[in-house]
């Protein structure tokens, strides 16, 4: 594996009595693309949110590029900027244009000059295929276009790693491919990515590894090919049996 970029060691988290992450160990190398997969409620979103410090955890450690996650303050803001996150719902600011949505972070958080932020945002919007929509408002775009803007917005902060939490599951079927295509391109460009998705086509095309989570535990890790054709654990077999019948 390449040099480790994101390292989780024995991470435990509870929500009250619910033990939601159980001794989670996970290392993601620089440039690696890891798929997180598992039943609903297995802790995938919590794991992503914990890596970004949107959630606290009780024991274990998480390092990003060799640095322990800070608890709060300026350092935490810097860390958040290092970790891009794309959610199921795109959360664009409705009263700002597409361009403004993308330049907001770089100008406010990174102190970039507006002209530079605009130039860079336009490059990113072109890259995700919505350059011609830059002066429109989010509601004027399709869901697939809005999600691509959300990806551009994250990239504008120059993150070291990108987390995607079911980025296509709120989209109409015909828009899923255009978002996955952008993610495949991003993966090929060398971005380190942790992606929660059940999209097997994407996993096969772009992922180095599949990590199967069940009941807050990493149950199995394998290449996409191995995992989807020959899962080892009963829990993975059972899970794949359910998603493959649809
Ligand atoms: N803020 C919260 N407070 C209490 N329980 C939560 C909270 N967020 C998630 N959970 C619970 O933690 C478990 C894991 O949830 P989640 O990480 O969203 O799973 P997944 O993304 O794999 O579907 C679920 O049982 C869920 O109900
Ligand atoms: Mg989830």
**Mean model confidence by pLDDT:** 94
Number of domains: 1
Classified by CATH, the class is: Alpha Beta
Beta content comes to 25-35%
> At CATH's second level, what is the architecture?
3-Layer(aba) Sandwich
How many strand units? 10
Q: Note the main sheet.
A: 6 strands, mixed
- The sequence of SSEs as H and E is EEEHEEHEHHHEHEHEEHH
Assigned CATH superfamily: P-loop containing nucleotide triphosphate hydrolases
End-to-end distance: 34 Å
Strand order of the largest sheet: 6-7-8-3-9-10
Rg, alpha carbons: 18 Å
Bound molecules: adenosine-5'-diphosphate, magnesium ion
As a percent range, the share of helical residues equals 25-40%
Low-pLDDT regions: none
Tally of contiguous helical segments? 9
Written overview of the protein:
The protein is an alpha/beta fold and 246 residues long. The chain has a single domain (4-244), classed as 3-Layer(aba) Sandwich (Rossmann fold), CATH 3.40.50.300. Helices cover 39% and strands 26% of the residues. It contains nine helices and ten strands. It has helices at 44-51, 73-82, 98-108, 114-127, 143-155, 173-188, 200-206, 224-229, 234-244; strands at 4-15, 18-29, 33-37, 59-64, 67-68, 83-86, 161-165, 192-196, 209-214, 217-222. The chain has a six-stranded mixed β-sheet with strand order 6-7-8-3-9-10, sandwiched between helices. A four-stranded antiparallel β-sheet has the order 2-1-4-5, with helices on one face. A hairpin with a 2-residue loop joins strand 9 (209-214) and strand 10. Helix 3 (98-108) packs across helix 4 (114-127) and helix 4 crosses helix 5 (143-155). The longest helix is centred in the last third of the chain and has 16 residues, at 173-188. It is globular and about 55 Å long. The model has no long low-confidence stretch (mean pLDDT 94). Bound molecules: adenosine-5'-diphosphate (ADP) and magnesium ion (MG). Adenosine-5'-diphosphate binds at residues 15, 18, 20, 38, 40-46. Keywords: Amino-acid transport, ATP-binding, Cell membrane, Membrane, Nucleotide-binding, Transport. Pfam families: ABC_tran (PF00005). GO terms for molecular function: ATP binding; ATP hydrolysis activity; ATPase-coupled polar amino acid-transporter activity. Belongs to the ABC transporter superfamily. It comes from Phycicoccus endophyticus.
């Amino acid at each position: 594996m390449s040099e480790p970029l994101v390292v989780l060691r024995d991470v435990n988290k509870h929500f009250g009595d619910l033990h939601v992450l159980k001794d989670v160990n996970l290392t993601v190398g620089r440039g690696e693309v890891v798929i997180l997969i598992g039943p609903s409620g297995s802790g995938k979103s919590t794991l992503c949110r914990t890596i970004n410090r949107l959630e606290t955890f009780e024991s274990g450690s998480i390092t990003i590029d060799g640095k322990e996650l800070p608890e709060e303050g300026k350092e935490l803001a810097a860390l958040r900027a290092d970790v891009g996150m794309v959610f199921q719902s795109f959360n664009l600011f409705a009263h700002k244009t597409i361009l403004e949505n993308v330049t907001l972070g770089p100008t406010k958080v990174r102190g970039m000059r507006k002209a530079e932020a605009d130039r860079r945002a336009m490059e990113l919007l072109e890259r995700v295929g919505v350059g011609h929509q830059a002066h429109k408002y989010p509601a004027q775009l399709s869901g697939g276009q809005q999600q691509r803007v959300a990806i551009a917005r994250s990239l504008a902060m120059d993150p070291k790693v990108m987390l995607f939490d079911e980025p296509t599951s709120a989209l109409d079927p015909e828009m899923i491919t255009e978002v996955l295509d952008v993610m495949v391109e991003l993966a090929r460009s060398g971005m380190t990515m942790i992606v929660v998705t059940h999209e097997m086509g994407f996993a096969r095309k772009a992922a180095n590894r599949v990590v199967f989570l069940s009941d807050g535990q990493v149950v199995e890790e394998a290449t996409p090919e191995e995992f989807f054709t020959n899962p080892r654990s009963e829990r993975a077999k059972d899970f794949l049996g359910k998603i493959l019948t649809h």
